[in-house]
Amino acid sequence: MKMRLFAACLGLFVLAGCRERLQPDQLPTSASISGLETAIPLTQNAPPPPFNGEVRAFDRIDNNLNELAGGRYVVELTFSGVYAGTDRVADASARAEVSFDQVGSARRVLVQTTGALLNNNADESLVEAVRLGPDAFLLRDDVCLTGAGEDARLAASLNAGQLIGGASVMRPAGERATINGEDVYRFTFDEADWLFPAVQRGDSTQVAIESFEVWLSPDKEVVVRYHMNFSVQDAVIFGNPQAVTGRVLVRYDAYELDEPVNITVPFGC
More exposed terminus of the chain, fewer Cβ within 10 Å: N or C? Predict the structure, then answer.
């Protein structure tokens, strides 16, 4: 039941191996992004080296988290629109919360999805995967799945970068803030450097970024916040074979970075 169960339980993440890069001719012009950048001179709030120039470490937005002792992050996605060429409503929402403890070699992934695009017309699906050293556990809708084996290990290894990608090149945008308890600097990037593997493109697919923000912690060397709004036309998303047209909202936030996390065997296993 391996990958079939994996896809059924975690349809949100089945595109982990499809890290396609959006090509420049299928993206809007960079003028739409430049308008989002701050007017504050970059030298006023420049991050410390080596983050004061081009940064090429976040083609997956959660890169470097494994270098920390522990932490937690939440990824939320929402799609609203229609099936391409029809007026039939298509919707999907997903929330994934990932906790990790590098010292104890433990990881917990909790994924909740709603909408027909992700659940084959089911109203809602809840999946929990836990890895404790060599052992792994998988629950679906609060039922522990015996003999899950490799599926449990795969699900517990899922990460945000597999789904929402990142950017191959980022640059400081001249803003500094405190977000989720971390001292962070805002970064920007060009559309040509944007990576979003959960969108599969056809000949008629169009993708347009509406707005985004990226905040990076030089101290922790990780992205603390990544928010993105974009529209798609005639695109396949989240592994559903039917093309859709509509709007995608992405929210990624990291918390409690480099702090110990208590992860135990899930209830019922």
Answer: N
